[in-house]
Amino acid sequence: MALVTALRRLAHVRLREYSWRTAAVTSSAGAWLTGQRSFTTGTHSLRSDNKVTVHFINRDGEKITAKGSPGDSLLDIVINEDLDFDGFGACEGTLACSTCHLIFDEDVYKTLGPVTDEEMDMLDLAYGLTDTSRLGCQICLTRSLEGLVARVPESVADIRQSKDGSS
Amino acid sequence: MSGHKMIFSGLKVWTKGRSRPAWISRFHDGMNGRGKASFSTCSPKVCIVGSGPAAFYTAQSLIKARQDVEVDLYERLPVPFGLVRFGVAPDHPEVKNVINTFTQTAKHPRCSFYGNVNVGKDVSVKELQQAYHAVVLSYGAEGNRSMGVPGEDLAGVYSAKDFVGWYNGLPSCRELSPDLSCETAVILGQGNVALDVARVLLSPIDILKKTDITQPALEALAESQVRRVLVVGRRGPMQVACTIKELREMVNLPNTRPDMVAADFEGVTEALKDLPRPRKRLTELMLKTAVEVPGEKEKRNKASRFWGLRFFRSPIEILADPDTNRTAGIRLGVNKLEGSGEGARAVLTGEVEDVTCGLVISSIGYKSIPIDPSVPFDSRKAIVPNNMGRIEQAAGLYCSGWLKTGPTGVIATTMNNSFDTARSMVEDMDSGTLDVSTARTGSQSICALLGKRGVKPVTFSDWEKIDIVEMRRGEATGKPREKLLTVEEMLQVARKNN
Ligand code: FES
C-alpha cells in the first residue's frame, strides 16, 4: 500500500515537472519527457470513452463540471481542465500544503475510501476543516464516483469578511 | 489602453501553468530585447520588496486580477524564493514545489525580478514610491527574538534562524560553523522550526546526503557527536506550537527514540475529548509517544539517538564552562500554568533545574525588522500596522506575509494573506483610493538610479544560470542541488555570458 502511494506520488511529481518544463522551455531530458508525454496521451485517448464526470462548487458558489479518467486525482482534473481555484494544489500533490482541500456531502465522503494519517495531518492545517473534508490530491477517480460533487472551501479572507459583515 | 486590454484578455489561464500557449512566448519575445513587455502609459506599476512566498503570491494574484498591472520584485540577494530556499528544511523537498508556480509568475510578461538590490540601502522606499503607483513590503522576518537571559552570547548558543540559514546555505550564515562536538543539544521553543532543527541534528546522514543541504553542513553533521536533543517549551503539551506532520516525522525518525516525561501529561487524557480535531490529534500522538506500549519501546531500544519534548520550562541562564567559557549547560526555571487551553500563561514557580548541554539553539520566533524610517512600524508586535494589507497612514504602501501578520503559519497561511493584500490593492485601484491615472516610470527610473549607484540587478534569467549550475553540481554528488554559498559566487555565475 505504502509503495503504491509512493509510486503514485512520484508519478504526480513527474507529471508536474514535465508540464512545468514545457512552460519553461527546457530541452534537457527532452527525449525522456516526450516518451512520458506520448504515454500519457495514449492512455487518455484509450480511456476517453469511460471518463468520469465530477462537479466542483467554486468559492463563488458556481457549479463547474469537468471530466477525468479513472485513476486521475481530483487535483489532476483541476489542473488538466484549467479550473481556476486560486492557489489550489500549491505543493503539486505531494501532501505538503493542504491547499487542495475539498468538502463533500457525508454520503459521498463515505465512498471516498480510507484516509491515511499523513493526509489527516495535512488536513488538520486546512482552513474551514469539516468532518467530511479531504485533500483533492489524494482522491483518485473511479467509475463509481461518477457525478461526485466537491466543494472548494472559502479562503480565510472570505471567512473573515463574512464574519465582519455579520457582526 | 483598450488595446492592451484586448491583447491580455487571453491570458486568463496563466496561473495553472500547464503548457503556456506558444503565442504568449512569441508575444513577449517580440516586445523588447529583454523579453519583457514595456508599456508606455497608465498601466498600474507595482513594486514588491522581497521575493519569498508572500511576494510571489501577491504578484501572482495582482497579475491575475488586473490585466494591465505590471509587477516588479526587488530582492536583496541574487537568488529568489526567500524562505522556500533558505527556511524550508532540506528534507522537505515537496514544500519547495511551490517554486514551479513562482517561476511561472516570474516569467510572466508583466512580472520582472531584480535581485541583488537592497531596498533601504541601494534605493529608498521613498524613491520606489515615486517610481511606482504602489509599493508592497513582503520582506518577511529576518530578525529573531532574543531570549534576554545571561549567557546568551556564549559560544555554543545559536539562534534557530542562523542555524537553519547555515544548513540551508544562507550567505550571511556561512561562517556559523556550529560546534557539534557535545552530546546533548537543547532547543528552546517547540514550533516547527525547532522540530526541523531537531530532525536535522538527529537524521541519519544517509537521508541528509540526498537533500540539498549544503556540503559544509553535511560534513559537520556527519561528524556530529550530538546524541540527545531536548526541545523545551514554556508551557504544556496542550500548548505546543508545532504541527502534527513535523511531530510525526520525529516519531518516525529511523534509529532514534523518543524520550518524554510521562508526568508532563498528567490530566491530558481527560482534556482530550473537548479539543478541536487538529489539537486533539496532535496531543494524542504526543501522548502515545510519551507512554508507549512496552513492545514498541524494545523495538526501538537499539536506537542510539534520543529526542524529547520538555514542558513547563523557561530559560534562566546559559551556564558557561569556567575554563573554556563555552556553553556547558542551561538553567531552566520551572513554570506552572495559569489558565488553560491556548491562552494559558506560564508563570515561574521559583524552582530551577540545570541541564548539561554543549549546544543551545533558541527557536522562540522570527521577528520582522523595520526597513526605512518612513514606514510605520509596531516594534512591540514587530509588524507593520495594517488594515487588510494597507499600511496605516501611508497611502500607496502595502504589506503581505510575515511582515503583515507576524512570523506564524504554514505556506497556505502566507498564500491566503498575500491574496488578501492583492485584493485590497485591486479594490483601491478600482475605487480610485489608489490613484493609477498618471503614468509612472517604474523599473526604468529605478534601474537608472541603481546604475548610477553602481548596483547591477540580477534578472530572473541570470538566476536561471545560477539554478542550472547548482543543479549540475548537485548531480555530481547525488543531490538535487548544491547551492552556491556566497553572494560573490552567485554574482559571478549570474554575469557569465552563457
Ligand atoms: S496539493 Fe498539496 S496537499 Fe494536496
TrEMBL record, chain A:
Coiled-coil positions: none
Biological process (GO), any one: P450-containing electron transport chain
Family: Belongs to the adrenodoxin/putidaredoxin family.
Location in the cell: Mitochondrion matrix
Cofactor(s), names only, from the UniProt record: [2Fe-2S] cluster
Any one of the GO CC terms: mitochondrial matrix
Organism, scientific name: Perca flavescens (American yellow perch)
2Fe-2S ferredoxin-type domain sequence ranges: 52-156
UniProt-listed InterPro entries: 2Fe-2S_ferredoxin-like_sf, 2Fe-2S_ferredoxin-type, Adrenodoxin-like, Adrenodoxin_Fe-S_BS, Beta-grasp_dom_sf
Keyword Cytoplasm: no
Descriptive protein name: 2Fe-2S ferredoxin-type domain-containing protein
A molecular function (GO) term: metal ion binding
SUPFAM superfamilies in UniProt: 2Fe-2S ferredoxin-like
Spans traversing the lipid bilayer: none
Top-level taxon of the source organism: Eukaryota
Keywords: 2Fe-2S, Electron transport, Iron, Iron-sulfur, Metal-binding, Mitochondrion, Transport
Pfam families reported for this sequence: Fer2
Keyword Transport carried by entry: yes
From TrEMBL, chain B:
EC number per UniProt: 1.18.1.6
Compartments reported by the entry: Mitochondrion
Pfam families in alphabetical order: Pyr_redox_2 (PF07992)
GO biological process: cholesterol metabolic process
Gene Ontology CC: mitochondrion
Lineage: superkingdom: Eukaryota
Residues in FAD/NAD(P)-binding domain copies: 45-201
Pathway membership: Steroid metabolism; cholesterol metabolism
SUPFAM superfamilies to which the protein is assigned, alphabetical: Nucleotide-binding domain (SSF51971)
Residues at which NADP(+) binds: Q190, G191, N192, V193, R234, R235, E246, G409
Positions bound to FAD: A54, E75, L83, V119, W402, G409, V410, I411
Location (main, coarse): mitochondrion
Molecular function per GO: oxidoreductase activity
Necessary cofactors: FAD
UniProt keyword annotations, A-Z: Electron transport, FAD, Flavoprotein, Mitochondrion, NADP, Oxidoreductase, Transit peptide, Transport
Class of this enzyme: oxidoreductase
Catalytic activity: 2 reduced [adrenodoxin] + NADP(+) + H(+) = 2 oxidized [adrenodoxin] + NADPH
UniProt similarity note: Belongs to the ferredoxin--NADP reductase type 1 family.
Name of the protein this chain belongs to: NADPH:adrenodoxin oxidoreductase, mitochondrial
Organism: Perca flavescens (American yellow perch)
